[in-house]
Amino acid sequence: MRTLILTTAAALLFCATSTQAQDKAAPAPAKTTEMKAAPQVDQLAEEKSAISQELKTTAGMASEITAQANKLSSIGEAADKERLMKVIDGAKGIEGNITEQLNMVAKADASNSAEIFAKAKEVNANSLTTLGELKGQLSPEKK
Asked: How far apart are CA 62 and CA 51, in angstroms?
């Protein structure tokens, strides 16, 4: 038992000293011009991420509406099915537009990002409005 404890203590001491030696031996990174360009790239990446997240949320909403309409059309009457098929087509069209915008945002670079991001935000806003209308059409009209 005593041998085990001494061996473990020696191993811990060895690991601790080698870790300290590695910390002291690591050279500081040299400053380069690439580090100055990093904030601009980081800002572009952050903006891409934020816009992509908004677009993905909208695509998820369209997918949910499509699923709800499919479920309702499987149990509804013929008149309801026709209305629900229009809802499904509209939601799938929105999903296609959003996917297209996601691809454009992913390909954006510093030279064209402003126009691509503006277009994506516009498409997203219009899609959200249309999705709200489509969601309202899910329930049958009262007579």
From this structure: 17
| Amino acid, res. 56 | K
For residue 52, give Cα distances in angstroms to 57, 59, 108, 120.
9, 10, 12, 9
What are the structure tokens assigned to 141, written together?
A: 């009209």
Q: How many domains does the chain have?
A: 1
135 Cβ contact list (under 8 Å, min separation 6): 65
**93 within a domain of the structure (yes/no):** yes
| Reported pTM | 0.67
Which tokens hold the place of 12? 């811990």
Alpha-carbon separation of residue 139 from 61, 100, 133 (angstroms): 17, 29, 11
Task: Quick: pLDDT tens for 70-84.
Answer: 988 888 777 788 888
Query: Which structural domain range is residue 56 located in?
Result: 41-143
Q: Is 90 within the bounds of a domain?
A: yes
